[in-house]
Amino acid sequence: MTDYAIEIEGLTKTYAAQRGTGPKTALHEVDLTVPAGSIFGLLGPNGAGKSTLINILAGLVRKSAGQVKIWGFDQDVNPRQSRASIGVMPQELNMDPFFTPRASLDTQAGLYGVPKSQRRTDEILRTIGLTDKADAYARTLSGGMRRRLLLGKALVHSPQVLVLDEPTAGVDIELRQMLWQNVRKLNAQGMTIILTTHYLEEAEEMCDEIAIIHQGRKIAHDRTDRLIGQLDAKTLVIQPVDPAPEALQLPDGVELERRANGTLAFSYFRNRTSAEQVLDAVRAAGIRIHDVATAEPHLEDVFLALTKSSEDQAA
Ligand code: ADP
């Protein structure tokens, strides 16, 4: 057992120049550790370098510099063991239309050198809910079933680390829930899960730790709750008894959003302003308060704040 499922140091990837474009550095000296047994989220806007990182882990893209260890195995020193320790569920759905799910899983197990006696084809088919479709041609499977088959293929060699690249992009709620149930169950059995997602709410709900990548650099990495706690922003939502007056004197740094339902949402930073000061300003304006609520920031706010501040620094 290792403390870290993944240890990355100084990882850099520069794609060679192509016609019309110069070389492109997609990852700049990224350091990253993923604790064994965690569900880890890799977030970043489009083009941030997430796929590049995942493809390097999967052995599909060659790094330009740096060190990558998977389950303690250095990719350069123990390429076979490091590859055997990781399974990747890719984004793309292309698969041989004449392969049945059973044949796909068997072929994949063969590619990983899993002996016939150790194959878990039936168990995996059950896990991904495709027992009924085990012998149907892939072309007769729905989009959701194909996704589940991709997950199954990532599991044939019983990897310690499972990587899911945008697993729920464009899938319906039912399939999303089924995928997350599967992921939680695999994690409960001890598998480390790394996922990329565009759905920040989903990352907030699913992930123990999150790293944010922006323009090829890691700009944040922390436990999910701490990452959100880092952002000192707070919102106080007030429902006035009567419609609020137009003019309001507010302490510096407090922003007011008048919502359609007549409530007033005051956003402020706790290190600059207290709730008391906001309430004082509201009372001073003669507003009688019917109800009051506070809202914590979401990952989305953290994400926007961090990507924006790193752009400001780069500019
Ligand atoms: P993400 O997955 O976060 O959207 P990618 O890793 O796909 O980001 O891309 C990071 C950057 O590297 C982008 O600017 C992209 O255009 C570039 N890139 C990705 N793949 C290649 C490639 N094969 N050749 C050249 N540039 C690439």
Description of the structure:
The protein is an alpha/beta fold and 315 residues long. Among the domains are: 4-85 and 159-228, P-loop containing nucleotide triphosphate hydrolases (Rossmann fold); 232-296, Alpha-Beta Plaits (2-Layer Sandwich), CATH 3.30.70. Helix content is 32%, strand content 28%. The strands form 3 sheets. Strands 6-7-8-3-9-10 form a 6-stranded mixed β-sheet, with helices on both faces. A 4-stranded antiparallel β-sheet has the order 2-1-4-5. A 4-stranded antiparallel β-sheet has the order 12-13-11-14, with helices on one face. The radius of gyration is 24 Å and the shape is elongated. Adenosine-5'-diphosphate is lined by residues 15, 24, 26, 44, 46-52. Adenosine-5'-diphosphate binds next to strand 2 and helix 1. Residues 6-240 form the ABC transporter domain.
